[in-house]
Amino acid sequence: MASDFSQIAYEEHDEIRVIRFNRPEVMNCIGATTHVELVEAWDRFRTDDGAKVAILTGTGDRAFCAGGDLKDPPLSLDPAEIAAHCRGERPGALGPSRWTDIYKPIIAAVNGVAYAGGLEWACFADIRIAEAHASFGVTCRRWNIGLADGGTQRLPRIIGMGRAMELILTGRVIDAHEAERIGLVNRVVPEGQSLVAAMEMARFICTLPQPAMRSDKEAAVRGFGLPLAEGLRVEAECFFSSISEPETLEGLRQFNQRDHPDRRSDQKARTSGIVRR
Hints:
Layout: E1 8-13, E2 16-21, H1 32-47, E3 53-58, E4 63-65, H2 79-86, E5 106-110, E6 113-115, H3 117-124, E7 127-131, E8 135-137, H4 151-159, H5 161-170, E9 174-175, H6 176-181, E10 187-189, H7 194-207, H8 211-223, H9 228-242, H10 246-256
Parallel strand pairs: 2-3, 3-5, 4-6, 5-7, 6-8, 7-10
Antiparallel strand pairs: 1-2, 8-9
Helix pairs in contact: 3-4, 4-5, 8-9
């Protein structure tokens, strides 16, 4: 089922939600209306108990997202608005990019260029699947426009400070295969196949028990960059928030009774690459 948004699409596929930049005529740039619709869409996803995984992609075969629409900028330079952003009271410049508390899995299906704010939105995801013709870059460097949607913070966390600084300072554009080599992209697939691959992964994730997965994501997000002792404290807090869930008792039963395809030699394992003895 698709939504009635005008500049994005919000599609429901069973327990999967596809959030799609839907302005192919302008390389899926984010304007003022797009910003508002992205905030609504991501709030809908995070509060919907029936939604387990989100996939972020773009319409067409040219662009995932080419960043902010410089002809229709969503960001106001009113002093009061600037002060509110600097106090952390706004969700982001191009949609809710500053939200860090969506602990459900997010996959980016990068189907073309991911430039400037589009690169930042790719970094918003947990997993990035890119088509072979995709490319990535801080192209706003040319126009003296800085990164305001997580690029200076998420990109170094994903690929390391040295590689991130090269991309940030030079604005150099890299292709999908280099992005995979440096760890920005998890997988490269043929043109036209990123959403197919993302849906396949999302469907598998939906088959898994959700509470521990979400608490593990929360621990990873909240603990990243903290001193080890504090990160381990966060991990313990998250672990004990999910260990008593009914899904844990069912998981223990499946393990002990070998009542799961990953534990049964007479069935095909669900988990790719698992070794059974």
